[in-house]
Design brief:
The chain is of the alpha+beta class. Helix content is 28%, strand content 30%.
Length: 149
Amino acid sequence: MNPPAFTALAAPPPLDSADWWFSLRLSNDPQAPGIARTHLRTTLDAYGLDTIVDTAELLTSEVVTNAHRYTDGPVTVRAQYVGTRRRLRVSTGDVSAVAPRLACALPADEGGRGLRILDLCALSWGWFPLSDSRDGLAGKVVWYELAAP
């Protein structure tokens, strides 16, 4: 029996909350980016953050796709909104300790543009290594922030 494609680690708080977060644990599955996008879109729409949904979906898809493509373990996705700062931070944890790097993709290349897109669209982004985490992963976290209305 295959494990579920994702496990919700926390549900969003009431819609009148100024600060909220959710976390997903995704199996290394080709459906992982789509599951992350759908969950993020549904949550951002529910909180009235529709002006950043498309960008958040695109960037989340890029980092989850990278985690799926370059690792063989589970991926965690955590989205956190801080109302006082009007910031959305999305973090993706995976089991690879290899640092992400910006590539110089040629026009005919099939890949190599994900981090460049992240660099152009996010307010800020970065990564940090994990030696161990509360989700049981060792590897790294890639994060980005968007300004929210």
